[in-house]
Amino acid sequence: MIPQHGVSARSSVAPYTITTSTKTVKSGTPMEVVITGKSSSDIMRGMLMQARYGDEIVGTFTLNPNERFAQLIDCGAPGNAVTHKKHDEADHKQTLAVKWTPPAGFNGDIKFRATIVLDGKTFWVGVESAPIKVVS
To answer: Which residues in 70-97 are b (16+ Cβ under 10 Å) and which e?
Structure first.
């Protein structure tokens, strides 16, 4: 989850938060996940997000069909990660909302983990949400 931009990730606290529509979700039930810049100048030019159970990527994402900024990718399974598309500057985001669905029958605590890019030389790796409890 480290961009190949020729510079190191920022070690400061990221000016972005990852929030969720719930703190507990039933396996197989979609929930909303939102990445937001803390101020209007904290836009995203790029991002990569996964749901993690420890180091394991779990669940699948769903996007609005009209989404111009983000796309689903395959990090070992179709749709288990979401990243940015090549896009125009007008499509940069301060807030991105997506749906995530935990696997059927899954039990455990997950966290959403993201790399978020402000610009080519400014990005943060390992931005995390609070833990989410998935129950079957």
So the answer is: bbbeeeeeebbbbbbeeeeeeebbeebb
pLDDT of 74 reads 96
Q: Which two tokens stand for residue 34?
A: 């939102």
Within 10 angstroms of residue 114's Cβ, the number of other Cβ atoms is 25
Instruction: Determine the Cα angle at 75 with ends 71 and 76, to 5°.
Output: 135
H/E segment holding residue 30: none
pLDDT tens-digit series, residues 15-70: 999 999 999 999 999 999 999 999 999 999 999 999 999 999 999 999 999 888 99
Q: Cα angle vertex 116, ends 132, 57, to 5°?
A: 45
Contact 129, 9 (CB under 8 A): no
Report the pLDDT value the prediction gives residue 88, as an integer from 0 to 100: 72
Three-state DSSP class for 82?
A: strand
Instruction: Please provide the average confidence, as pLDDT, over all residues in the chain.
Output: 92
DSSP-derived 3-state class of residue 59: coil
